[in-house]
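Summary: Need help interpreting a holo structure output

Steps to reproduce:
1. Submit the protein chain below together with the SMILES for fe (ii) ion.
2. Request a joint structure prediction with the ligand placed.
3. Inspect the structure token block that comes back.

Expected: a single structure record containing both the chain and the bound molecule.
Actual: see attached output.

Input attached:
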Amino acid sequence: MIDRTKLTKRFKDYINHYDLKDPKIGLKASHSYRVAEIAEKVAKSIGLTGEDLDIAWAIGMLHDIGRFEQCRIYDTFIDSESVDHARFGCHILFGDSLKEAIRGGNEDIEIADYGKAGIREFIEDDKYDDLIHNAIYYHSDYRFPEDMDQRKKTFLQILRDADKVDILRVNVETPLEEVYNVSTKKLKSDQVTPKILENLFEKTATNRKYKETSVDNIVGHISFIFEIVYPESMRILKEQGYLYKLMAFESDNPVTNSQFDQIRKFVNDYLEEEK
Ligand SMILES: [Fe+2]
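--- attached output ---
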């Protein structure tokens, strides 16, 4: 069984070692709780019950555990400049190779003692390890292996949905300059890269490798809607309304404003069809 009280307590202890007043850390803490909550709702909506709801919730709680040490060590959430935070989380929880997690950042890193926390400290029973590991490992990949067994895929998709739904909140509640690490001037003058716009009109999620400008990030987050798997996730996403706020972005650059006009029209039509 999964003891939610125990897991929550250990998680709180863990994040208390970081500066929760730092907006970056604070947002990852609240993100973890929110994703857990949304994941459980989505799991329920597809008919999962009992222990399966605990698993979905626990995966949500732990999925970004790698973010805290990533931020402490590299002072960034940009994986390509530091570590792949999903693999890094698997290193912390399951002892996966650290080398595999390193991306652009220095590989000569030392994880703080308080940053080490094996999965057994959160969940005594090891029977969920495979499911949890799989979901965390693949949660932020652009695409995941299609041949995964159905149960693993279900929990992974629940997590990916819940994560996307809540990232939209984070992007609206936190100043975009902070989220994307750019100056206001740049944010207000950049244009959307044509390939990124093309991705959106093809109804596919933005491929990170095409991202060039700060506003590409906004379009990337808007494009999340095309990847949402479960109707309940879509329902929560619409109900929250953050998507609409994100789309209301106003630039000082007329070209960008016209790009966003097109985006709003396209996305609103898409959401209409979805009903
Ligand atoms: Fe993540």
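--- end attachment ---

Reviewer comment: The chain has two domains: 4-169, 175-273. The pocket of fe (ii) ion is lined by residues 63-64, 85-86, 139-140, 163 (CB under 6 Å).
Status: needs-info
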